[in-house]
Specification:
Mean pLDDT: 86
Strand content: 15-25%
Order of helices and strands: EEEHHEHEEEHEEHHHEHHHE
Oligomer: single chain
Low-confidence stretches: 1-39
CATH architecture: 3-Layer(aba) Sandwich
CATH topology: Rossmann fold
Shape: globular
Largest sheet: 8 strands, mixed
CATH superfamily: Vaccinia Virus protein VP39
Number of helices: 10
Length: 342
């Protein structure tokens, strides 16, 4: 393992943000199978494990922050566009096209910034606040580095019309605090957008369990569940999202949700879109490696076996009882909530 010091150790408001550039020496190496074993890198801004670079500012969100992860997140963005479909749901058009005053949008947990960049192109009259990582810097986008949720205090109350968070539920152990901060920052009439996976697998094929359909993916997702619990992430919040929003202050009749499902193995993995879905799934599963190993639920050999089998299942080569295409019968639920502040 390597660790790297950086002259820029500021933290980003996108807890799972990527594309961060770092500086320092590659010469400090310690023999270790993974970072949880025998090297304290707590004072290093970045460290390298198994040829992947990680940001040490967040222990809960333990995904890589290298160029490979940037590409994965951008690919995932386009996969998600097809399943939602589109960039958003809810009254976003009506809110952002109201020219009675200058509108503002905040993206919390922006990843690479690709969602917000596309929003800024559609609504060029809106001001955007984001840790934008893409090369294209639009005039209506402001780059700020803050640590959510506490760093969001730099913004005044009721200062945004739209706040977006996606895939943050498993990225922080302070999700309720994030939602509370978003409520405080929303103007009356503004909308909070949440897009989250449940990370639970369900069988759509009668007479088969998920273990019959995709045994290795099932095992790997069980490891990931253990990793989240180890980090204090409340993985059950997905089923209580409406309750959380009401407790935060949103009126129950101002909350709407769109549920949708994604197959572990796409219906046609040989099309361009299907191939991108497969690649996104495989790369996502591998990106969980460090956080799974650090929690001790399995060792490297156990992870490698589960990952290798999962990669085959995602591509339509399952060894499960249901046959090679069994993973097509495994569904991953997603929820998209929008809540208007009154």
């Amino acid at each position: 393992m390597e660790y790297r010091d950086s002259s820029d150790d500021s933290e980003s408001s996108s807890v799972p943000s990527t594309g961060v550039h770092h500086h320092g020496s590659d010469n400090d190496e310690v023999e270790s199978r993974h970072s949880g074993q025998n090297l304290d890198v707590s004072q290093a801004a970045y460290f390298v494990e198994a040829e992947r670079t990680y940001n040490n500012s967040s222990w809960v969100y333990r995904f890589p922050v290298d160029q490979e992860e940037v590409l994965r997140q951008d690919r995932q963005h386009y996969v998600m566009l097809g399943s939602l479909p589109g960039l958003y749901r809810g009254p976003v058009d009506d809110i952002l096209n109201d020219r009675s005053r200058r509108r503002r949008l905040l993206d919390i947990g922006c990843g690479t910034g690709i969602w917000l960049q596309e929003m800024a192109e559609i609504f060029p009259h809106v001001d955007y606040i984001t840790p934008l990582q893409h090369d294209t810097q639009l005039r209506n986008c402001t780059f700020m580095q803050v640590n959510a949720p506490t760093g969001l205090r730099v913004f005044g109350e009721e200062s945004f019309d739209v706040i977006n968070m996606r895939q943050m539920l498993q990225s922080t152990n302070e999700y309720p605090s994030l939602v509370n901060a978003a409520f405080r920052l929303l103007r009356p009439g503004g909308v909070l957008l949440l897009h989250e996976p449940q990370l639970k697998l369900h069988s759509a094929w009668q007479g088969y369990t998920v273990d019959d359909l995709a045994p290795y993916v099932t095992r790997l997702m069980a490891y990931l569940e253990a990793a989240h619990q180890y980090r204090g992430v409340d993985t059950e919040l997905w089923t209580r999202m409406e309750q959380l929003l009401v407790e935060t202050g949103f009126d129950e009749d101002a909350i709407e949700v769109f549920y949708h499902y994604r197959q572990v193995c796409p219906s046609d993995p040989h099309t361009e879109h299907g191939a991108n879905e497969c690649l996104n799934g495989v790369n996502y599963l591998y990106a969980t490696r460090l956080m799974i190993l650090e929690c001790g639920v399995t060792d490297e050999d156990g992870f490698d076996e589960a990952f290798a089998g999962s990669s085959e299942e995602v591509r339509g080569n399952s060894s499960g009882r249901a046959g090679p295409l069994g993973a097509q019968g495994v569904l991953s639920p997603w929820g998209y909530w929008w809540a208007v502040k009154r």
